[in-house]
Amino acid sequence: MYARKDLFTDPEHQKNFKAQYGYDLQMPETWEQALDIARYFNGKDLNGDGEPDYGFITLFSGVELGMWFLSIAGAYVEQPGPTVDRYHNVVLFDPETMEPRVKSPGFKRALEMFKELYKCAPKASISWGLTEQWDLFMRGRVALTMNCGDLATLSQDPNRSIVRGKLLCAPVPGSYEVWDYETNQWKKLDRVNRIGNIHGASWHGVISKFSKNKDVVYHLFAYLATKEIKQPITLMGWTGIDPGMIYDFPPEASSGYGTGDLGEFVEKGGVDREDILQSLSAYWKNYYEMDAWIPYNRLPGASEMLNSFEIHIGEYLADLKTADETLEAIYNDLNRIVDSRGREEMKQWYHEAIGYGGPAPNPKAELEKLKQ
After folding, report:
1. How does pLDDT run across 54-94, given as a tens digit for each residue?
2. Tally of structural domains, the chain
3. SS3 172
4. Alpha-carbon distance 118 to 141, whole Å?
5. 249-295, pLDDT tens digit by residue?
6. Residue 28: domain span
7. Among 96, 211, 213, 293, which lies 20 to 30 A Cα-Cα from 68?
8. pTM of structure
9. 74 has which bridge partners?
């Protein structure tokens, strides 16, 4: 999540927001708070050009839409726990039957939230790609956005951005309620359910078995993975290479665990110190300080599944389908995709992909490994 620091620290906005919503204006901890912020800023002139601007923007179209929607849905449908079992640390399917879970009340609430946020964005964004929404934020025309890591580095370019030095960053919000599939009812929590997002985080080089020069390709990938090459690429934006190595995180952004040098980032990358500290801190929290992560969809047919989300959620945003009709259509598509590849085979692959029956991914345990 990215926000405009100058808007959030403005005394007039702070006073008016608290008067309207009853709590302080700050980076949202829940999606309900994010919606309050989006509604508050929507329609106000945020960059001083006399034109009304927007409260929120994210990706509302394209094949990636499903992953972005799931980044919201995770808070409402994924219940953390010590193991990966039928009711904990799973999102898309019932791992015992491979029945899609998208018709649950948790998914419906997430879908309705997605549409309410869309109402605080330009109507045209239903057909935008990444670049149009990045541009909206960098021109100071939106208060809050859920977006890619690229936005932090792209925002440093003074030729295209007026928000350099004005970034607030945080992991995606959560929810005080999660749908409990074991009891089939909402479970109220005493703290926010924060689900980390690692969708897209496994981009990496793949060498074809048909390659005639496997060693050459391997050495290229190895070269690109060295600190001297990877770190400048990380700071460029547009590359799809985001922070992930331990040397990408200075101690100030990683509770003392990282080995990076913030000063080196600032000097070599030409980035604003506070902006990059905000961005790296948010990344670190997403990796290591959330309650669970949304399981990455590694199933055969995953791209077809994402196509279904794109088509039907797009129809919902355009008022061509109701929420129930949308989820029913996605449910039917996912069932068809599973059956076309064999339900038992897909069940086995799903179990392998999510580590079913084993311990849940444990960020704190990973931190202990870093210590060693």
Report:
1. 999 999 998 789 989 999 999 999 999 999 999 999 999 99
2. 1
3. coil
4. 15
5. 999 999 898 999 998 889 888 899 999 999 999 999 998 889 999 98
6. 1-201+242-372
7. 96
8. 0.94
9. none
